[in-house]
Amino acid sequence: MKTSGERDLLLERLRGQRRHVVEQLDGLSEAQLRTSSLPSGWTPLGLVRHLTLSDERYWFEVVMASGPLDFWPPGDNADWLVGADESAAGVIDAYRVAAAASDALIEATDLDAPPRRPESWWGQAGLAFPTCGRSSCTYSSRPPPTPVTSTRPANSSTAGSTWCCSAPPSSHPSTIHKEKRMAISLSPYLNFPGNGREAMTYYHSVFGGDLQLFGFGDYGMTDMPEDGLMHGALRGDGFVISASDAMPGAEQTWGGTRVYCSFFGDDLDTMKGWFEALAADGSAGMPLEKQIWGDIYGIVKDKYGIEWMFNVSSPEGEAQQPG
Questions:
Q1: Which of 6, 180, 246, 291 could form a disulfide with 250 if both were Cys (CB 3.0 to 4.6 A apart)?
Q2: For the segment 110-153, what is each residue's pLDDT rounded down to a tens digit?
Q3: 73-82 residue pLDDT tens
């Protein structure tokens, strides 16, 4: 059995890590808490939400204490999302409450005890408990499912040993918590000579989606126009367009068009509508029409000088025409 000294050390380490998380948020504005500077799109508040649901509630409340997994939001990466109507203080307070509940469980639990609610995906992720010291892991307030054993991967330091723990009921949403890899994505980042906010509002009127705009003033940058665009992001169905106003001197490095924003898809009506909306205030460099490779393709320069390529693939067996 673990000694009180080991338990105290565990609690000290966990509390130190949690303090570090909260301290990093101190002094950030509401806009900064909700803005991502990472390709993943995850925000500081999103990280706190993830730590609350995953690191605290899932691993302690569910796995350690066999509590119900009824708090997990539906959808991929939903544990990283914070709604616009949720207050920052509320998200951070929920993290503190969950951490306190985890500490109480650690205080009341034998640290040598096996997890009371194991998950079937642990073996696939390389997680194992070399021996539980009993024929199956115990559950509280419910009958245990059929015990299973699995051999660890050959490259494991405990290759050949078995890990015991009962598989969860088939209805248990264990797949929600499988380890995920973030898909690599590429999106355009546009630079404007002081009219980025106007341009992004215009693109929002053309493409729809969810638009977020943050000024230099939101980040305390006093050497730039307060209402200038520090960062903007337009998130639509399958695309993200980001932009900012140019920093001093950046415009001097701009030359002719070297990069195009390109849309690929098979929704002719939607993409044709976007093309025509941009062309109405700009100019079509190449009409949207059938090309030699079989797709419908066109190029348009918008009123801000940004050039867009549209490639509409025809569904197999159909011959689309822009009309």
A1: 246
A2: 888 888 887 776 666 666 554 443 334 433 333 333 333 333 33
A3: 888 788 888 9
Residue 48's nearest CA partner among 13, 103, 87, 8 is 87
Cβ neighbour number for residue 200 with a 10 Å cutoff: 25
Phi, psi of 297, deg, nearest 5: -145, 145
For residue 192, report the phi and psi dihedrals to the nearest 5 degrees: -130, 155
In whole angstroms, give the CA distance from residue 153 to residue 323.
Answer: 58
Place of tokens 């029409």: 289
Q: What is the 3-state secondary structure (H, E, C) of the chain?
A: CCCHHHHHHHHHHHHHHHHHHHHHHCCCCHHHHCCCCCCCCCCHHHHHHHHHHHHHHHHHHHHHCCCCCCCCCCCCCHHHCCCCCCCHHHHHHHHHHHHHHHHHHHHHCCCCCCCCCCCHHHCCCCCCCCCCCCCCCCCCCCCCCCEEEEECCCCCCCCCCEEEEECCCCCCCHHHHCCCCCCCCCCCEEEECCCHHHHHHHHHHHHCCEEEEEEHHHHCCCCCCCCCEEEEEEEECCEEEEEEECCCCHHHHCCCCCCCEEEEECCHHHHHHHHHHHHHHCEEEEEEEECCCCCEEEEEECCCCCEEEEEECCCCCCCCCCC
**Strand pairing partners for 312?**
265, 296
Please check whether residue 58 is in contact with residue 69, taking contact to mean a CB–CB distance below 8 angstroms: yes
Q: What is this structure's pTM?
A: 0.43
Domains detected in the chain: 1-113 (no CATH), 118-173 (no CATH), 189-312 (3.10.180.10)
Q: Are 236 and 205 in contact (CB under 8 A)?
A: no
Q: Of 2, 4, 1, 14, nearest to 101 (Cα)?
A: 14
Decide if 287 contacts 276 (C-beta within 8 A): no
